[in-house]
Amino acid sequence: MSLKNQAAAIGIAELKPWKEPPPDLTPLSLMARLTAEAIADAGLAKSDIDGFLVGMPTADPGFIYPASAAEVLGINPRMLNVVDIGGASPAGMIWRAAAAIQAGMCSAVLCIVADLNRVGDQRVPVISVQREFEAPYGNIGANCGYAMIANRHMYEYGTTPQQMAKVAVDQRKNALKNPLAAFGDKPLTIDDVLNSRMIVDPLHLFEIVSPCSGGSAVIIASPEVAKRAKNPPVWLLGAGEYSNHSSITYAPSLTESPIKPAADTAFKMAGVERKNIDLVCPYDCYTITVLVTLEDAGFCKKGQGGPFAAEHDLSYAGDFPCNTHGGQLSFGQPGLGGGMSHVVEGIRQLMGRGEGRQVKDAALAYVNGNGGIMSEQVSLILERRS
Amino acid sequence: MSDYIKPLPKPSPTSRPYWEAARRHELQLQHCGACNKYIYYPRPRCPNCMSDNLKWERVSGRGKLYSYTIVRRASTRSFADGPYVLAIVELDEGPRLTTNLIAPQDQLKIGMPVAVYFDDVTPEHTLVKFKPA
Predict the structure, then answer these.
(1) pLDDT (0 to 100) of residue B2
(2) Which residue among B73, B98, B110 sits closest to A247, beta carbon to beta carbon?
């Protein structure tokens, strides 16, 4: 039994992230707009939606959240859940939706995330273990963990700041063609990145995502529902998930992430080779994240992510299209909408809706979702059949 | 009253012996009698073999710098009082821990030997930090 070809993405909705959100917005008002747009995009009626996977907004957290949100939206789901695996939650929703469909529990699942970021101060982590053993030393937020990964990667493999910066530079080229990118106005050079302010050595300001507000939604449907959808269905061919730590301190390795087992599972299920992938959408909270993902997902040898990024053109028109929406580094990180942006872009490209940044003849996409400090990993393989 | 504003550990029943030992300037870790591994952070059972045969043992306090970052801009106001070195130290006994390294920035080198340093940040709280050995 496998999830291969059991469900397809048939509709998407995505908001342009706000750097400062208008005062009258709430996470639920964003979800209402996204629900209406995603249903219209798929060509469904709201009554067709019978599954509901939602991300918990930090701006409106609550206990027993899914039913409250579904009630506001007027959805009566046969399956409802919060998916809470950090930035991997959106990718995690996609295979969970497919699994529920395969099990016959529902036939059209709305996967939705929306959040507002008005707070300037990072909250102290609320999980007791992190509050006790991480926060007193200032290991708060994600920057520190990724900086320590980057430093260790440089130490073990000789990765350079220029190689890391190249990721942000190429992805910006993509963002220039994405009207929804929050940071898609002007080109970026490697010098711009390396001259930007050092935040946590060795990571500069332009190598770090900017918290924004916004959201997105994807509808995953059964083959029967997909037949009457407006868009060409984008099929889930393979999925894999893995976690082996929460704080990076207790990970088996700083540089070899749980992406490898997740990606291997997804590729094995899909039955496709790395070389056949037309575009990749790796989670990019930081530049180093992309390098580690390309290595552990098997697109280059371990430790060679830096030279690989330097030697390939990662733009939509290049020889290795990567995060053609700009990545979160240029699109912005509207909470969990950051992780969903990779899923949405993979689907959008395979539907042939990439407009000015369309990857020619794109048929197969690799998407990775990453939670915490490389803690939770979800890899997806998506396909559009000709 | 202390004017210390950074987050402080609130010991749990599981971890209390660790912090009480730190207060006495001793580094103690749980040791699993079943699989012979040292454990950090303190656990209700051994995360390797699930044994409950755990005993507190004093350890060397020596290790190596596994990785670090100089936090120039902190994510939280309580750490906004200047750059600090956040580090992962790998103890000679095996476990890694999150800590601060008290060392000049130009002397930081992954792999360098380090030794424990107990920082009495308030009259009631001692944090486990490290210095170059």
Answers:
(1) 73
(2) B98
